[in-house]
Amino acid sequence: MSESKxxxxxxxxxxxxxxxxxxxxxxxxxxxxxxxxxxxxFKKIVKFANEIGIKYLTLFAFxxxxxxxxxxxxxxxxxxxxxxxxxxxxxxxxNNIRLKVIGRxxxxxxxxxxxxxxxxxxxxxxxxxxxxxxxxxxxRTEIVDAAKKMAKSILAGEKGIEQIxxxxxxxxxxxxxxxxxxxxxxxxxxxxxxxxxxWQLSYSELYFTKKFWPDFHKEDLLEAIKDFQSRQRRFGxxxxx
Length: 241
Prior knowledge:
This protein is an alpha/beta fold.
């Protein structure tokens, strides 16, 4: 990217990677084939985002609602996640990428939880892109969990009720140590946020594309960033600051 295009890069991009199953159906393929291509594309987009200087990339990989899918499909997705963790640690470190995970542990298999924790530990000192994977994640669940943590903090005398405001509440969210997304991208033509980062997306710019996730390539990411750069962000004010 040219210097002029990198001056107004979004610091944090969030993506709802949607459409793997429909991509496969259009081609007369099983849903598993769509997920396989989608995972390959996930790796390419992560690498490219790091190359162009994006600091945080949050990807909606598996929602709390996805457990309702057929057991075979869920098993395939969990297996793909485990293979990613087994094979990609060296690549993450090579590219200076830090892995973080948000969401509840249970009922993710314990062996995968252990590998997730190990990968986070072994990449925590990397200073390039922070890859934030939303696994077994739901926006409402996150807010409920944050409210419980806040209540415990108040009961323990660590915080007083009068101290609670938007900033202090954010400290109890899964994303307490990363900035809110500047840009949300959703693929597949669906125009909703589907219980994703409900608190954090309050002032994010939204970008929807009809392309299914397997067809969303680096050129499409650049187009979304270009669109973001053309917008004037007011944050409720009359003029942008």
